From TrEMBL:
This is Two-component system, OmpR family, response regulator. One of its GO terms (biological process) is regulation of DNA-templated transcription. Signal peptide: none annotated. Residues 121-218 form the OmpR/PhoB-type domain. The keyword Transport does not apply. The keyword Transmembrane does not apply. Gene3D superfamilies: 3.40.50.2300, 6.10.250.690, Winged helix-like DNA-binding domain superfamily/Winged helix DNA-binding domain.
Length: 232
């Protein structure tokens, strides 16, 4: 994710991570080329207006150096000539600011499908637990686990943030999307529902951090570094 506005770049990156994508951020052309070399992305969201030049020029250089990953240009410009210029140098799509995060995520998935790269995040996994997002199915050790829509959404949020301690308020805000007006006791209730189903297998994966919240981790890594569930 490349944008000279740090807040916007982090906002989009956070939205993509929430959807299961592993995401790196850059704020200028030099940083973009360095991140591409280090991160080897499946796709780049690239702002056209950068402090050290044009994103179109950055794309041209990356293509000349052999980059095959699709590029979605992101810009405040909406003139036809700008769109043509971006697509001519190897851009795959063009999103004009202002935009919705939902639209951008949908464009990312669509471009990945068209490119044949596949959409990272179609399957999320942690330990022996798998979430098939296309089929909306959950399996542990290859055995299916039946979940309600809310249980599924809660488990997905835990997997995406595996090894990261989440507070009850964070879970409430993300899973219930600010629409739930009750107290956070509902989180404890649904965690107990998940444990009966997911932790019916050994080892248990859902752990309580007293006076803080919950974390998805394996018992042999209680102090493991925070991270996100890898999309695979």
């Amino acid at each position: 994710m490349v944008d000279d506005e740090a807040y916007l770049a982090e906002l989009v990156a956070t939205a993509l991570r929430y959807e299961g994508f592993e995401t790196a951020v850059a704020h200028d052309g030099a940083g973009t080329e360095a991140q591409v070399a280090a991160f080897a992305p499946h796709l780049i969201v690239l702002d056209v207006m950068l402090p050290d030049g044009s994103g179109i020029d950055v794309c041209r250089r990356l293509r000349a150096n052999g980059l095959r990953a699709p590029v979605i240009f992101l810009t405040a410009r909406d003139a036809t000539e700008d769109k043509v210029a971006g697509l001519t140098v190897g851009g795959d799509d063009y999103v004009t600011k202002p935009f919705s995060l939902e639209e951008l995520v949908a464009r990312v998935r669509a471009v990945l499908r068209r490119s044949g790269t596949g959409a990272p995040g179609a399957t999320l996994g942690f330990a022996d637990l798998e979430i098939d997002e296309d089929a909306h199915e959950v399996r542990r050790r290859g055995r299916p686990i039946a979940l309600s829509p809310t249980e599924y959404k809660l488990l997905r949020y835990l997997v995406v943030n595996a090894r990261k301690v989440l507070t009850k308020r964070q879970i409430l805000d993300h899973v219930w999307e600010y629409d739930f007006n009750g107290n956070d006791g509902v989180v404890q209730t649904y965690i107990s529902y998940l444990r009966r189903k997911v932790d019916a297998f050994d080892p248990p994966l859902i752990h309580t951090v007293p006076r803080v919240g919950y974390v998805l981790r394996t018992p042999d890594r209680p102090d493991g570094p925070p991270g996100t569930g890898k999309a695979r």
